[in-house]
Design a protein that fits this description.
There is one protein chain. The chain is α/β, with parallel strands linked by helices. The protein folds into two domains: about 160 residues, no CATH class; about 210 residues, Class I glutamine amidotransferase (GATase) domain (Rossmann fold, 3-Layer(aba) Sandwich), CATH 3.40.50. It contains 15 helices and 17 strands. The strands form five sheets. The chain has a six-stranded mixed sheet with strand order 8-6-9-11-17-16. Helix 4 runs parallel beside helix 6. The protein is globular.
């Protein structure tokens, strides 16, 4: 995997190499933490996996290792929906060091279904075993929020009755797929993730998404026939859109003189008259404005508002936020469709291409929708947890 620290590439490392190397990142981690601490009253450190992975503990920088670095009190959360939550919580405490056990100030049980009174005897027994209070039982809340663990469901989703069919190339190293959430929420729009030429069908739009490794994923497309299928689709005059790494693939060539990814140079798809060269420092910025003027089938995107971000290694020889050559379009903007006006402009353009009523499908205000979902989550937590004790834990620290 590629290791990036503060926007700079530190190299491509195997898991074992990174495991040995990561403790060298502690000064960078603490500098970032201290910067955040100077700007905020409360910082929540979200762990990864289990804090009791004893085989990985020596070089831990994300769970108890991070908590010890900054002397943060810990709340231990167990997912009852997976089963065995009491064993998981008690077993975790058993495997922690004595110093770490003192840092755990409470437990929380998450995703509970049913009558909490049935669970209460177990909560008392758990407290007797681990001598740590349970701060609450959070019910299973049916929320629609981004979930890093729900990719299988997303990739298999399909709306066969939709008026508009969008095919997103399912690259092996796909990233930033939340770019397509606003389109997935539109009732008459099908967003499919495809990994072979036969799955493309007669899509109304093909999107090449972001990727963690542009060159390797382009070579993968070249080998399995997807590149040729995309080129054939474009030759028919049907629209193609590349975002970030997908944008880079659509150009004439990709050069990597510093070995940031694959190293060397490879040909692009040749669908845009642009060339990309990878730099050592990653571009990372939030940006907002209106889309530059384009023509062709998606010309109605011109002048539409956006509020997104860029995060990429390459320089592609243009300062435009949206470019096109005939029916092929490219952009570095993530979140390009988060504004409902822009999502509406895209789908309306595709509807017009098919001779359909461009106003028959309405876009969702994704920002307002997400905020409603997080409000539901916040309300559910407040109702379920002993918030007075949670605040006391924060105020007392260790």
């Amino acid at each position: 995997s590629q290791v990036i620290v503060n926007g700079e590439v530190r190299g491509v490392m195997r898991a074992a190499d990174y495991y040995r190397y990561k403790t060298q990142l502690i000064p960078d981690i603490l500098a970032a933490y201290n910067q955040l601490a100077a700007q905020n009253d409360i910082i929540v450190l979200e762990g990864a996996g289990s804090p009791a992975e004893i085989n990985l503990k020596e070089n831990d920088i994300v769970n108890m290792g991070m908590a010890k670095m900054v002397q943060a009190p810990v709340l231990l959360v167990g997912d009852i929906d997976r089963g065995g939550v009491f064993a998981a919580l008690a077993g975790t405490m058993l495997l922690l060091e004595e110093e770490e056990k003192k840092m755990v100030k409470g437990t929380i049980i998450n995703k509970f279904r049913g009558d909490v009174k049935i669970l209460e005897p177990g909560l008392g027994m758990l407290e007797d075993i681990i001598h740590i209070p349970t701060l609450g039982v959070v019910p299973y809340l049916h929320l629609d929020v981004d979930d890093e663990d729900s990719l299988t469901e997303r990739f298999s989703r399909r709306n066969t009755a939709a008026a508009i069919d969008i095919a997103v190339i399912r690259l092996p190293r796909i990233s930033n797929f939340t770019d397509f959430n606003p389109l997935e929420y539109m009732e008459q729009v099908s967003v499919r993730y495809v990994s072979s030429p036969g799955q493309l069908g007669d899509a109304d739009l093909i999107i090449l998404p972001g990727t963690k490794n542009t060159m390797d994923d382009l070579l993968w497309m070249r080998q399995n026939g997807l590149e040729a299928a995309v080129q054939k689709h474009a030759a028919k005059g049907k629209p193609v859109l590349g975002i970030c790494g997908g944008f880079q693939m659509l150009g004439r060539s990709i050069r990597d003189p510093l070995g940031v990814e694959h190293g060397g140079q490879i040909n692009g798809m040749g669908l845009l008259p642009l060339e990309t060269e990878f730099a050592g420092e990653k571009t990372r910025t939030r940006t907002q404005g209106v889309l530059d003027r384009v023509d062709g089938p998606l010309a109605s995107l011109s002048g539409q508002p956006f509020d997104g971000y860029e995060i990429h290694m390459g320089l592609t020889g243009t300062d435009r936020n949206l470019v096109n050559w005939k029916n092929v379009y490219g952009t570095y903007l993530h979140g390009i469709f988060d504004r409902p006006e822009t999502a509406q402009a895209l789908i309306s353009a595709l509807m017009r291409e098919k001779g359909m009523d461009p106003e028959a499908v309405k876009a969702l205000d994704i920002a307002a929708y997400k905020q409603r979902q997080y409000d539901i989550l916040a309300d559910g937590l407040r109702r379920s947890l002993d918030m007075d004790e949670v605040y006391r834990v924060v105020e007392r620290g260790l």
